[in-house]
From TrEMBL, chains A, B:
<feature type="binding site">
    <location>
        <begin position="74"/>
        <end position="87"/>
    </location>
    <ligand>
        <name>NAD(+)</name>
    </ligand>
</feature>
<feature type="binding site">
    <location>
        <position position="243"/>
    </location>
    <ligand>
        <name>Mg(2+)</name>
    </ligand>
</feature>
<keyword id="KW-0464">Manganese</keyword>
<feature type="binding site">
    <location>
        <position position="247"/>
    </location>
    <ligand>
        <name>Mg(2+)</name>
    </ligand>
</feature>
<feature type="domain" description="Isopropylmalate dehydrogenase-like">
    <location>
        <begin position="2"/>
        <end position="348"/>
    </location>
</feature>
<feature type="binding site">
    <location>
        <position position="132"/>
    </location>
    <ligand>
        <name>substrate</name>
    </ligand>
</feature>
<keyword id="KW-0560">Oxidoreductase</keyword>
<feature type="binding site">
    <location>
        <begin position="277"/>
        <end position="289"/>
    </location>
    <ligand>
        <name>NAD(+)</name>
    </ligand>
</feature>
<keyword id="KW-0100">Branched-chain amino acid biosynthesis</keyword>
<keyword id="KW-0460">Magnesium</keyword>
<dbReference type="GO" id="GO:0000287">
    <property type="term" value="F:magnesium ion binding"/>
</dbReference>
<keyword id="KW-0028">Amino-acid biosynthesis</keyword>
<feature type="site" description="Important for catalysis">
    <location>
        <position position="187"/>
    </location>
</feature>
<dbReference type="Pfam" id="PF00180">
    <property type="entry name" value="Iso_dh"/>
</dbReference>
<dbReference type="InterPro" id="IPR019818">
    <property type="entry name" value="IsoCit/isopropylmalate_DH_CS"/>
</dbReference>
<keyword id="KW-0963">Cytoplasm</keyword>
<dbReference type="GO" id="GO:0005829">
    <property type="term" value="C:cytosol"/>
</dbReference>
Length: 353, 353
């Protein structure tokens, strides 16, 4: 299996190192061969190649079985013109690999729930999966430009039927493998694209009789995520709504530093990255929480390599290390023990071996 | 002063009755003359006139000094084609009166904060004003249509410079009258319209030297509203982001039934409505909480009639009735006393007299 590593910027490099160690341990214990190849993306690529997404990076990713991404961005590049911003690399690689399905599982860890901004009785039991369309909608629609000598501006939210169908199918399938409940989020009382989205969900329903479907308007969904997060199983929505709602959902359980994500294309190649950012303030200090990156590697084993047992071992390892009270500086566990990136990684590797 | 009442659907009728009683008391005590005229909108208008926004309603609103709206919508009209849906009436009246500035103040009531989904230490001290652009963006941009024989679909997010400038000015002015902090929310790393939005905020900054400005991406804003709501003063954003974020913010303090809103045009005519919906399940039972509607009437006195003292009296009345432990069925106050719509209204009126 060929794995491309894109550490990116800030703590991306450190946490990528951790993920590689964990995957090496898995390879050795379970007799797999993983080859690793590192490439640049984001700010690091701008500095080295003058572009956030060099051709060599795209080519390598296209030939890989899976891609792990650390994080991109940092104050150094914040004032660059938009084609020279780190996040352009991220948008570019999503589009280049046609990574249309972004999956974000969000589940609280019992001994971290106390750090949730929500009351324990509200957040406990939350276990949801947000399925976000990632390569269409207003992120990529044209025209997206100034007009009338800069007196006006337009962006375009565009979808093809096929783009909506494939993400909706993905979400139904995910719901089948979970608790069988699908919440489709749209703004069908205003947007034509949402009306079409809702129609397609209704059409597809018959193919998945064991899944129950509800439609929720995006504004109502933004409320319900807070008032009753445990009521959701799988949530499917278009790109921009997914961006907002998945970030909203990511803070509910109080452990943003623990959340992985997977972005998949139709051939099963995926890009796996933590939900958190590049955290430039703590970069290079050995303090970063590597768990989200390590759990992203577990998702890679599950979704791209179909190594469910190995994925599970990593997840169990994380749980057991947390249960033993170990945590990085971004978290607190009552009577726990604070450790750095390296020690946290070692504890997880030790469990695997 | 000519006030048009649009009770609309569901509990809209009941709570409008309460607002009218309160305004009548104010008129009598403070020697004002308010004339009231009632018209239909939403589902009620569909039933009676075959359209959610009859011409007579638009004409009456155009001649009014202010408009009070109850709520629109209900299951009866949920499956109507889109031009015959109650919310079309709402979108239509906003556009017809050019109500570009939607103001949503969100402030917790001390003895209701316990009902917040957030921990008390997170939510306490929250006092924010969301300023949402209400007549532009993707809500009204064209084209908004199916294409390629229904194989694709587009919506258009369009703004003119002038539309952005006027809402940004409004928000700066609001911040001047509050704690002097403005958070502008956009998605400038993806949308051209957001880049223009951010430029305009930067240009305007010099005119309001006493206001401090920060730019936050919409996904980050959705997180920060939950993790640190008390850090916001005035939030300004475009129509769709404002729809999502203002609903998200409305559940933070645990008392959605208390939140008013104001939608203003350039000549100061405004439409005032509660944030909550038409609550068809409890309509006609005398259980509805009239406070959001009554506080909306207070905003009308403040913003359209410049009757600050009278607005304040209504707000004080609500606070004192709550302090005395009275609440409607949607709320709970420890050791409080549950009352219906009518008694709640009477308590508020009694305080005013
Ligand atoms: C960096 C940005 C362009 C990106 C997005 O909006 O998709 C990020 O917020 C994300 O969710 O991965
Ligand atoms: C009913 C709907 C069209 C409306 C909107 O999205 O503007 C509502 O959600 C609101 O916020 O007032």
């Amino acid at each position: 299996k060929r794995i491309v590593l894109l550490p990116g910027d800030g703590i991306g490099k450190e946490v990528m190192h951790s993920a590689k160690e964990v995957l090496t341990a898995i390879a050795e214990e379970y007799n797999h061969t993983f080859s690793f190849e590192t490439h640049e993306i984001g700010g690091a690529a701008i500095d080295q190649y003058g572009t956030p997404l060099p051709e060599t990076t795209v080519d390598a990713c296209k030939q890989a079985d899976a891609v792990l991404l650390g994080a991109v961005g940092g104050p150094k590049w914040d004032n660059n013109p938009s084609h020279l911003r780190p996040e352009r690399g991220l948008l570019g690689i999503r589009k280049a690999l046609d990574l249309y399905a972004n999956l974000r599982p969000i589940k609280g860890f019992k001994n971290l729930l106390h750090a949730s901004p929500l009351k324990e009785e509200i957040v406990s039991g939350s276990d949801l999966l947000i399925v976000r369309e990632l390569t269409g909608g207003i992120y990529f629609g044209t025209p997206s430009e100034r007009r009338d000598n800069g007196e006006s501006v337009v962006d375009t939210l565009a979808y093809t039927r096929r783009e909506i169908e494939r993400i909706v199918d993905k979400a139904f399938q995910a719901a089948q493998g979970r608790r069988g409940k699908l919440t489709s989020v749209d703004k069908a009382n205003v947007l034509e694209s949402s009306k079409m989205w809702r129609e397609i969900v209704e059409e597809k329903k018959a193919q998945y009789p064991e899944v129950s479907v509800e439609h929720v308007l995006v504004d109502a969904a933004a409320m319900k995520l807070i008032t009753n997060p445990a009521s959701f199983d799988v949530v499917v929505t278009e790109n921009m709504f997914g961006d907002i709602l998945s970030d909203e959902a990511s803070v509910l359980t109080g452990s943003l530093g623990m959340l992985p994500s997977a972005s998949l294309n139709e051939s099963g190649v995926g890009l796996y990255e933590p939900v958190h950012g590049s955290a430039p303030d703590i970069a290079g200090k050995g303090l970063a929480n590597p768990v989200a990156m390590i759990l992203s590697a577990a998702l890679m084993l599950r979704y791209s390599f179909e190594l469910e047992d190995e994925a599970k071992i990593i997840e169990d390892a994380v749980q057991s290390v947390l249960d033993a009270g170990y945590h990085t500086a971004d978290l607190q566990i009552p009577n726990g023990r604070k450790v750095g990136t390296e020690e946290m990684t070692k504890l997880i590797v030790d469990y695997i071996r």
